[in-house]
């Protein structure tokens, strides 16, 4: 199919035309966007790409879900820094096996995610690709000067926590891959797993609560699996994280599906990825206060362990036996424990 680049850009991004205000002085439609921040704020910027067959398959993701998830993965990174997401740049490389209508649906998902989190699309690029569709999203936000949350801020004596539930996205991918093979519809009881995988939630409110703490700890978002994110904190901070397996929050639907399939839900929680929850550390004296603030926002909050001197290392108590947690998860340049979908 032949694409008219400029007409398609105008069509797909028409909802951003003419947008200005709230720091944005030049929006989409010029050579570049122009925006400013208040003097007491710093820029938080991140970029993430989704490539067909590497991160998603048409069999497991609708076009709108692809766009939605690409934005959420970046908003989650801003959340992990304690920031407020504000602007997005979208670059798409379209292969011949994707129609203009399907790409429009991708942008529908992009805008759905942006609107849900108050983010405005301010530019990007559209090109052709010979084989696979690639979608790259850059999100820029703001955080109070000196208040960005870092992986390197974990200290002995702190508690390790995670928001929400983990493992659900990997369970959803397993389900969708199976139904794609058989052609069967997803049963109603497993629909929450589809939502975990296709429409994840970024924990911006949780990041803001933690950024406002008088003595914040480390923070990371769960994109490549809880084990991978805990290891990143451990290595950046030079500490040992001791985790209780039975405390890791796994949704009941995920546990039920794992039992149905004869699989270990904890493996999905540790190594599956794409849950986009937040994992980090807090001072022990802050547990009750932060837990109450999270509860007010309807955000599940679970303490799963503690920080100790030594390391870097991550160990887990399972069935009264301490064992090392493998430094594994999704890895573009090595063998992954769970393939993204």
Automatic annotation (TrEMBL):
ATP binds at residues 107, 124-125, 151, 223. Mg(2+) 4 binds at residues 31, 77. It catalyses: thiamine phosphate + ATP = thiamine diphosphate + ADP. Keywords: ATP-binding, Kinase, Magnesium, Metal-binding, Nucleotide-binding, Thiamine biosynthesis, Transferase. It is an enzyme of class 2 (transferase). Mg(2+) 3 binds at residues 31, 77, 221. Residues 29-143 form the PurM-like N-terminal domain. GO terms for biological process: thiamine biosynthetic process; thiamine diphosphate biosynthetic process. The keyword ATP-binding applies. InterPro entries: PurM-like_C_dom, PurM-like_C_sf, PurM-like_N, PurM-like_N_sf, ThiL-like. Mg(2+) 5 binds at residue 224. GO terms for molecular function: ATP binding; magnesium ion binding; thiamine-phosphate kinase activity. Mg(2+) 1 binds at residues 48, 125. Pathway: Cofactor biosynthesis; thiamine diphosphate biosynthesis; thiamine diphosphate from thiamine phosphate: step 1/1. Residues 155-312 form the PurM-like C-terminal domain. SUPFAM superfamilies: PurM C-terminal domain-like (SSF56042), PurM N-terminal domain-like (SSF55326). Substrate binds at residues 55, 274, 330. Its EC number is 2.7.4.16. Mg(2+) 2 binds at residues 48, 77. Catalyzes the ATP-dependent phosphorylation of thiamine-monophosphate (TMP) to form thiamine-pyrophosphate (TPP), the active form of vitamin B1. PANTHER family: THIAMINE-MONOPHOSPHATE KINASE. Belongs to the thiamine-monophosphate kinase family. Reaction mechanism of ThiL seems to utilize a direct, inline transfer of the gamma-phosphate of ATP to TMP rather than a phosphorylated enzyme intermediate. This is Thiamine-monophosphate kinase. The lineage of its organism: Bacteria, Bacillati, Bacillota, Bacilli, Bacillales.
């Amino acid at each position: 199919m032949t694409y008219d680049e400029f007409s398609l850009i105008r069509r797909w991004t028409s909802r951003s035309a003419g947008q200005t205000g709230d720091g944005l002085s030049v929006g989409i439609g010029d050579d570049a966007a122009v925006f400013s921040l208040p003097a007491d704020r710093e820029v938080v910027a991140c970029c993430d790409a989704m490539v067909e067959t590497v991160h998603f398959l048409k069999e497991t993701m609708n076009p709108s879900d692809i766009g939605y998830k690409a934005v959420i993965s970046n908003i989650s990174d801003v959340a992990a820094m304690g920031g407020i997401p504000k602007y997005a740049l979208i670059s798409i490389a379209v292969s011949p096996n994707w129609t203009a209508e399907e790409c429009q649906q991708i942008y529908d998902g992009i805008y759905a995610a942006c609107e849900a989190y108050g983010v405005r699309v301010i530019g990007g690029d559209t090109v052709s690709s010979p084989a696979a569709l690639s979608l790259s999203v850059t999100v820029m936000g703001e955080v109070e000067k000196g208040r960005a949350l870092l992986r390197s801020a974990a200290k002995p004596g702190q508690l390790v926590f995670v928001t929400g539930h983990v493992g659900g996205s990997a369970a959803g991918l397993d389900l969708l891959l199976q139904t794609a093979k058989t052609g069967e519809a997803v049963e109603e009881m497993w629909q929450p797993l589809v939502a975990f995988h296709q429409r994840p939630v970024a924990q911006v409110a949780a990041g803001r609560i933690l950024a406002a703490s008088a003595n914040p700890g480390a923070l990371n978002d769960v994109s490549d699996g809880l084990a991978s994110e805990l290891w990143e904190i451990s290595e950046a901070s030079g500490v040992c994280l001791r985790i209780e397996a039975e405390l890791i929050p796994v949704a009941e639907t995920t546990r039920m599906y794992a039992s149905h399939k004869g699989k270990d839900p904890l493996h999905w929680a540790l190594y599956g990825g794409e849950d986009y929850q937040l994992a980090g550390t807090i001072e022990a004296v802050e547990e009750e206060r932060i837990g109450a603030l999270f509860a007010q926002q309807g955000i599940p909050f679970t303490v799963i362990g503690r920080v100790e001197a030594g390391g870097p290392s991550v160990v887990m108590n399972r069935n009264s036996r301490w064992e090392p947690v493998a430094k594994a998860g999704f890895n573009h340049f090595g063998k992954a424990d769970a393939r993204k979908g």
